[in-house]
């Protein structure tokens, strides 16, 4: 039986009436996305049509999921809300704090020792507030959610940008910052600007070497890392229904890399098969009764241009396997073009490591197809030329693939099986030799490949591909190898060709597991004690941020003018810094240390205007804060791209930054800034970015008139006495301005005014 089955049945019970009413109000057939959104309005039955990309709307998500790195700060904030129990089903998953180094058993044991304090905190706070707790080793949040909690037509939010993975089971699942999660856990509405809609029509059928991963790699190449911003991507067509449920999850997962709010697919037989295979026949039976409401109306898919803001069509029969990268997930290269492209760009052709798994590609189908290639190594007398690692997505998958012999197959070709955790995908990889910062190539089936993302080495060129393509590339050890056309020389000196991968969508003998790693929360948590040591280096109770004093911000100093790409990895790095995710003061020492200073093209080197010397960004910010001097950050396009980590907003707030002024924001980061009481502003004229100088002092002239739709005016005073007046736009509505006035959204919740 499924978790929270009564809640799911209630969603389906409400859906026909609400969707029918929405269709009547909107006056046309509805997409799946619209059906789910209108069924989850905070006020219940729809009473008005909402403007895409215009109207802010209050929603009532069905559930919340948190991973251990972000859960610490989210739950520290929730403790301030004054609630006895979470208002909606919520789970915490311990997957980010396990560093990959040796093997699964060794690495998991080390993590339990090193992060015992954090795991104990998360376990106790979950137990106290009615939160389901998944222990270290249980698996990666998104795989565990897909296996246990996701359901067609549902809405969930999660404190990780790849929460969108649940779209593979027909959900609208959205990554958010911890403050948004706290709102929903506290029983409040969740606000989102009604998204635009991008339709992706999939024709034909995948075959041979082409995998679901290649669909999103192709889409990323079309839309780029910001092309999906403010939009939900809805996939449909014969190609969509011919694909496995977990394959759909892969596509939705990496939709985060195009900036999309989320992605989703309509309910079909593959979802029903997956639900029944994961012991949720009750959900499949309930979904079958409202199946027509769990997909877009037929008229929509017949004439998509009339109903979507943008339509993309991809013929899966003609789609070629892709490798995307390096350094950005939208640099798409068909495998047939990779050799010439690599040579042209002087990318190292020798592949040092191939890595498969992660929250993006760790399903039974993924592993079984990769194993079919691994078996060919001995059958064809080959030798694997690159190091090779596997990261299972959950203990259910790991146990099942071990039972079915896949782990033994991988180990026979020299592979290392890491723990059921994020590991190398998020920089939690203690890779031998990475500290030498040598230029090298790796290939992986993860979702992101920003500089330093996997191993901390800025000179590691990471390329993203499907697990089966990554496995073939690791066997060959050559970035220029095309398994569709090229041969390999085996140990006997013979030319052999790898046969196309094959595998089972679901385990023929069913999934199995001895201990999935779940802790059921106490029915009554009032007697559970949550202890945080005042001397802890890992955890720190939060103090409220100060409310706005009602005056214009004046005399602010430019902290940094960030040049080019500035993701949340640049603003608040992961990897070894994950250990401080529950300690705001300590983790603030990584604030913006990866951002490039536009004035000297260096990282972590900015001018302290109080001394005239250069120092680390956090050190300069602390100096300004100690002197009572506010500071401002300036950035480029798509600022805050990447992870949902709210630390990238909380750290600047904690260190005295008052505003972030950029050319454009990534959606989640902009919301995180607002929630923490910061001013997230955009240049009315992007060319004004070039007017900002290193020694600038900034004055707001009309902040006292802060209002929805009214730009703010900033005065940038240069060292020579001249000044530039710069107009800054914002997207704050009245409620969000209330967050700023109160000092943060949490301050309003704690005061009972939200």
Automatic annotation (TrEMBL):
For this protein, the parts annotated as crossing the membrane are: none
Q: Where is the Aconitase A/isopropylmalate dehydratase small subunit swivel domain?
A: 558-686
A GO CC annotation recorded here is: cytosol
Which InterPro entries does the record cross-reference, listed alphabetically? Acnase/IPM_dHydase_lsu_aba_1/3, Acoase/IPM_deHydtase_lsu_aba, Aconitase/3IPM_dehydase_swvl, Aconitase/IPM_isomerase, Aconitase_4Fe-4S_BS, Aconitase_4Fe-4S_dom, Aconitase_dom2, Aconitase_mito-like
Give the EC class as a word.
Answer: lyase
Q: Where is the Aconitase/3-isopropylmalate dehydratase large subunit alpha/beta/alpha domain?
A: 35-477
The reply to whether Glycosyltransferase figures as a keyword in the UniProt entry is: no
Q: Tell me the pathway.
A: Carbohydrate metabolism; tricarboxylic acid cycle; isocitrate from oxaloacetate: step 2/2
EC?
4.2.1.3
Per its UniProt record, the required cofactor names are: [4Fe-4S] cluster
Biological process according to GO: tricarboxylic acid cycle
Pfam families assigned: Aconitase (PF00330), Aconitase_C (PF00694)
GO molecular function ontology, one term from the record: metal ion binding
What are the record keywords, sorted? Iron, Iron-sulfur, Lyase, Metal-binding, Transit peptide, Tricarboxylic acid cycle
What catalytic activity is recorded?
citrate = D-threo-isocitrate
**Similarity field:** Belongs to the aconitase/IPM isomerase family.
Protein name per the record: Aconitate hydratase A
From the broadest rank down, the organism's phylogenetic lineage runs: Bacteria, Pseudomonadati, Bacteroidota, Flavobacteriia, Flavobacteriales
Gene this chain is encoded by: acn
